[in-house]
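Input.
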Amino acid sequence: MKTASKLSMTLLPKFPGLRLEKIAIDAEIVSLSVASTCPLAACPVCGNLSGRLHSHYSRTVTDLPWGGRSVRLSLKVRRFRCSDLRCPRRVFAERLPKVVEPYARKTIRLQEILLLVGFALGGEAGARLAERLGMKASPSTLLRRLHGAETRSFPLPEVVGVDDFALLKGRKYGTIVVDLERHRPIELLEDRSAETLAAWLKRYPELRIVSRDRSTEYERAIEHGAPQVVEVLDRWHLLKNLRQSTERILEGNHAALSGITLPAKSGGSGEKEALMEHTPAPRSSKEEAASAAYRKRRLARYEKVKKLHSQGMSMLAICRALGMSRGAVRRYVHSEAFPEHRRHPPQRSMLDPFKPYLAKRWEEGCHVAMQLWREIREQGYPGAQGRVLQWARHRRREPAPTTPGRYVSSMRKQTSKASKNSPRKAARQLSSRQLAWMMVGDPEDLSSAERHALERAVETCADVAAIYPLVQKFSNMVRSREAEEFEEWLKDSLSCGVKGFETFAMGLRREQPAVEAALSLPYSNGQTEGQVNRLKMIKRQMYGRASFGLLRRRFLGVA
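Output.
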């Protein structure tokens, strides 16, 4: 009896009144015969208790697995006569509310586990895992459980963060709302329009603070839906906008800054290796002609944009008139000179671990790319020969016998040009983005070469000299949360004489209360961005095929 009692406690749901009568174990299934021992049962219609037994019937349900085997319960369920003669239900079956729901084929605790699996993995992946764990369920069953689950209720929020996320990148966006005090998402909205968010905000008059990025839609939503709240701009976005404005100003001064360089990042073989790595591949005469024609078209667009903007046309109107992106129009408008395309050095590739061996073999005189590819393939290189051919082409000082004729003259011209002043060519030109990062960042974090390049930029370019102190002051204000200095900074920025920076300052003046709140309050949108990353992971698990309703349930259900 003690053994049977222990088995009952181990295998049966924790519900008083169940008795284990028989157990049968085979290779895959544990079958349990279980009977109810409760003397009375309540009528589901009138609620009166009755002990007048009518009959029995057998009901089979699946329970949680045990020892890697599926568990099947054969429940011996009793029928009772209702004790109230006026009740329309003369005979009823007893309910086991903590064991199994009416008409269900799975126990409540098994359905709860399957629901958690569905929340975590969705339909297809969840069904595969459940089967391996001995809880066989189809993808449709898991999704049906998800859609039928009760919506979680959350405490009324007082401090929230809002941000957008891509339902279809570049085309359709939604809105996420996060309770910043409890660190959990509380709502997903199907679009990012001001009307939708304003309608949601109106349902929560107890809101005190809303953190947001600099979206004008969210600004309008808060103005109409919750005018009583304190708006807080996200500090990360403030620094990002500062860097972007600085970068646009630097792009407009490209000619003045073009002579500033940084030492090449190379090791071992020094300047010679840097020269080899960054010498661009030779191009044929046709490719050179195509490049020149493309530059001519870009220059014509640049001049057209400048002309239309000088006539008073807005950037959005120029975009529509010329069929250009807003980013390109903005870049052209803020550039004082035509922004030339720069050829960037090659990025990291799967060939990098094998480059020391290739360089060694090249110095030994093996200049046959196919032979080099065969050798590193035996060492585990997984790529095709194309990368090795390109690597070898960058290093040739004389054309190979197999080099096509259209490349020979261009290659010799490129080699002679690269061989002149090789120490200078080993340095890399400082880009506008790199210089913008240096200006926004902490000067203590810069290397000596970067500090020297920054000093040269300040000495060379009047715009850089004018805005650098303002950029540094704003960065320090954001990092140290010194709101009391913002008013003075704003006055200095609006009269700095650099149009692009004055435009940035005017935008902040329009949102001055929200900026000052960001510089004084501890709230920010960092955890909202983190929840967006988690949402992206769940969305990608479903390969973009799930409905918004399912995405919302999965995301909020396990928050």
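The longest strand covers residues 53-66.
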